Amino acid sequence: MHKILWNKKSKPIFFRILVYGILFQIIFMLFVYKTEDQKEEPLFLEYDATNNYMNVCSLPVYDYWHPSIKYEIVDQKSIDKCPTEPLTELVNGTWRILEKGMNCSARKPKIPPKFPENPPNVVVFLVDSLSTGAAKRSLPKTLSTLSSQLEAVEFPFVNKIGENSLANKMVLWFGVSVSPDVSIFEEFKDHGFMTLHVDDENHQKGFKAHHYLNLNNGFCPNQLQNSFFIFMGAQGLNSDSEIGSVEANNPFLSISIPKKLRRKNPTVLEIMKQNSRKLQTHFDTRATILDILKYQPAAIFNNRTLLEISGERGHSYLRRQPSLPRTCGRLPIQPEYCICQVEKVTVTDENLRNRFGNLLVDHMNELLDRSNLTSICEKFELRKTLSLLHHGHINPSDTNHTYDLTILTDFAQFKTILTHNKNVDQILFAKILNGEAGDCARQHDLYSLSNNQTRCDDLLNEWDPEIPVLLIDLDFLENLKKEDCQWDETKRVKIGVHVKEAMIDTTQFDIVLYNRPEGKDFLEFFEDGKRIIPKRFETRKFGNFEIPTNIQKFMEFYKRSKLVECLGLEMDRDTSEENYNPEYAEKVLRKNESKFDMRRMLGKLEDSHEITVVSKEEGTPAIDLFVMYDYVEDGKVIYRYIPGLNNDGTKYRYTHLLLDPSCAAEMHGHLFWILCNPIEQLKHEYGPLWYRDHPTSYFAWNHSGKNIVVAGNFTEEEMENNGPTRRKYSNFQKNLV
């Protein structure tokens, strides 16, 4: 009786308690275990969690058929209502122009000079908006044919340079410059080639070519077997998904070389395949085309050594490329276009999201005000911060933080990359991108929030120096960076003029002569004795002015560029981890490219790297070169140090003073940053009487100095497998010295 009564009365109560208990646990877990930062589900094979923009690039390897991409294709927004009209028509194999007043014409070419007989053709088939992923999904038969019949090599990690197709085509055909004198078509015509160009965008400035395409003539497939055939896209289609945003910046590229070269020189395919696994840009595609035209014919297309083409920013796919890490930080790729995958964490702190969102809106309104556009443009107001993604793991002690920021205003959606320096509370915005808000505004002018520097442009036009010059005036560059170019007309503007250029009027300009020495990685400026800065920094052209793109970086280079000659007191050298150039070690290892041999290479690049070189001339001492590192606590640099390593794995740090500013020095054609006053460091290392002899039989390299700190140990496995052991390099040393 009691058992039956319990079942009837207690069973519903028991189930209620069970249900309520489960609900309570779910609510408890949602609120108690809620974190401020939520990790995104991984869509790519690898992500960089260190946010090391200069030295790390996790290439975007992903599923080309991911559901988010298929969804974007099915549900993409239509522009059917936009007032567009076709410019051309193709009916029954016949192509004709619909625009009245347009015509085609041909010109008789000049008689070219003599060139090698029967050079291979170069055919570039460029599809405007074709990403690597889109090509894989939409053109499988075409790609299969290119691979099987032409042995084409695909380059899946090409990064676009500019925002739109025109900007990226300028990189390919002009190397960014818009001067018609440097068109790659002109280069080919000057070398005896017939040129052909087809473009259905008649409202854009085209290129002069020998002929335009007549589809009725047909095209012989065998021609492709005897040609360099480049099948490529300028950029990808824009999309709102995460993968889609990568594809927008990842144009397709496939290159086939002539069949006879594939058979005669199989190593070229191997070099191309090696380069295809690295980050590339169309600067490199352009360098490849120039290599095919100008440099490879003399070597019968057998040259695989590194080629630096004067005035170019890329490196040929047919040759070995520099051994530096190919990252967006080192290549001319802006952060907003970078396809290297950084681990991103969703920030849910509403205060921070609203703060950054309002700062971006204030920044956009300020740009409108500076550009005198407030009378024709609406003022922006923040409606919502749609997304805030932090690059890499969030470490509160870090000084610099980078975010992807997307906001919604009353009129449109905007996206940018935001960098926050916590030490000085400085916030910088990259280029501001808008979605499809202006797609149908055909009859109206569109203004870019990032490029409305009217006053700056007016001044540069007014100052036209009539010969190519480099703008190095730090005061004007600072104004240009702030987009506020008010200038005292009585003040001369400092410019760099190459030593081979003609002199110009000095009443307007303060002229600093500079040189670009061959075989060295820096420019020489003849000011205050001599200054040297790295050669490879990105610039943009404005008339005859060449202007640094990353103004802040250039200003830092120039401020610490004063050359300090060697005191002759020591043979040790160091360079900071950020500026260390691994190409130096590779150059020494290639015996025919250096006057030095490698004696040893120790430690890891991230915290303990050092190398020793010795001259090939007899009777000369060995030279130790160290990487200098920052020791940071609570986001602040406490000291700098160079490493030392004992045979037992003990790591040492030789501390250096934080002296500012730093200066520059030269070592075997490479630039090194050093202290402007090395005497202070000598006192720190050896004491105030550093200049005296201190005879002793007990001096030891790892504990007698006054600036030595013990910093842990390498494990036996690290000593054996990762390289910081003298035993591993004993045979290495015998082979090299």
From TrEMBL:
Residues 456-565 form the W02B3.4-like N-terminal domain. Pfam families: DUF229, W02B3_4_N. This is W02B3.4-like N-terminal domain-containing protein. The chain crosses the membrane at residues 12-33. It comes from the Eukaryota. Keywords: Membrane, Transmembrane, Transmembrane helix. Signal peptide: none annotated.
